[in-house]
Specification:
The complex is a heterodimer. Chain A is an alpha+beta fold. Chain A is 32% helix and 19% strand. In chain A, strand 3 (96-101) and strand 4 (105-110) form a beta hairpin. The chains are: A alpha+beta, B mainly alpha.
Chain lengths: 203, 155
């Protein structure tokens, strides 16, 4: 492997092998590709949309007083490439939200910021309060962990805003993602039949 | 022209290592092993270039190899960030470019200078550090090759 040619070929070949293995393991996604976040992103890219959308702060009047511990709070900017919602957080009480972002990793912010999104929602997982609090406990154990924008669902080492919340509930036996996709996006929570919508504001 | 050959090699290794290490995070903890392979390749490429290029070319190579993250860092300067569309994605692009270091940086979360995890700052300084390390290593390899009379590695 120390020959100059071997060094040049090693990673390209590995990419092909790994991509093939992952595609094969997730072949169920090929039967209905429109549902996967990967294809959502591709479609958006064709329309010129990339990333989390155009940041145009407003005051959406989201009723934060309705929040209960374990609720999921969503915020969206126009032209977001991966759905209607750009960001998601988990309410942990006292006007605080656990979320994950590039600058801070898994961190805690105030819930007020979700009032500035063009589109915002509060949703509640259909389970008992104790289970919701256990999900919050799990998420809090991962505070400060590293953020990676394209983190796969697999593993508990690299996180993004959606994965930490999905995993927190998954660990309680509640899978909020229906199609067993490779990644999680905020829209998954909004579309899950296992949640109820508490409040919704559309910009 | 020779410098482009070595630069091309570094880019091929870097870009495909990003893909491979990212895909390997699907099978943890395989990505940690790949980081070691990436570092080994990096040192070997440094040695390989040092045996064929002069010091000036090696210095240029050390900078050009990391040109994309230098541009992303430049776009993070507030004034430019206001002038250029999508520049707020620079920090994401720096993270993606340095994906090979993800398995190591994931450990750098135990202190929070200025309220941000240590890995955030590592992503900001890793680009010049890699250039510097490449330059220093290449010059040392060059000295040892010219001092020992050893023939360059086979092409």
């Amino acid at each position: 492997m120390n020959h100059p040619r071997s060094r040049l070929l090693f990673f390209p070949l590995l990419v092909l092998i790994l991509a093939g293995m992952i595609a094969y393991e997730n072949r169920h996604l090929w039967s209905n590709p429109g549902d996967s976040i990967f294809f959502t992103y591709l479609r958006s890219f064709k329309q010129g949309h990339i990333g989390y959308g155009l940041v145009t702060p407003t005051n959406n009047g989201l009723p934060l007083e309705k929040l209960q511990i374990g609720d999921i709070i969503l915020g969206g900017w126009p032209n977001c490439a991966y759905g209607n919602y750009s960001h998601v957080g988990l309410y942990i009480g006292q006007n605080l939200v656990l979320e994950s972002f590039v600058d801070y990793g898994v961190n805690i912010q105030t819930a007020d910021k979700y009032r500035s999104y063009q589109t915002a929602s509060i949703i509640r997982v259909k389970t008992d309060q104790k289970t919701r609090e256990q999900a919050v406990d799990y998420a809090l154990q991962h505070r400060n962990k590293i953020f990676y924008p394209v983190a796969f669902k697999a593993g508990e080492r690299y996180w993004n805003c959606s994965k930490i919340i999905w995993m927190a509930y998954k660990k309680q036996g509640i899978d909020l993602e229906e199609i067993n996709d490779l990644w999680i996006a905020p829209d998954v929570f909004f579309n899950s039949p296992r949640v109820e919508i508490i409040a919704e504001r559309k910009g | 022209m020779r410098i482009y050959y070595y630069l091309g090699r570094l880019y091929i290794i870097q870009i495909t290592a990003i893909g491979a290490i990212w895909l390997m995070t699907y099978y943890p903890p395989g990505e940690k092993i790949l980081w070691l392979v990436y570092m080994w390749f990096w040192i070997q490429e440094c040695k390989y270039a040092a045996s064929h290029l002069n010091r000036k070319q090696l210095g240029l190579l050390a900078l050009l190899w990391q040109l994309p993250p230098y541009l992303f860092l430049f776009l993070m300067i507030p004034w430019w960030a206001e002038q250029i569309a999508y520049s707020h994605y620079s920090i994401f692009l720096i993270h993606l470019w340095h994906t090979p270091f993800l398995p190591v940086f994931a450990y750098a979360t135990w202190i929070m200078p200025g309220g941000k995890p240590l890995y955030y700052y590592l992503y900001l300084v890793i680009t010049p550090l890699l250039s510097l390390a490449y330059g220093i290593l290449a010059v040392r390899f060059k000295q040892s090759v010219s001092g020992s009379g050893v023939q360059p590695e086979g092409e």
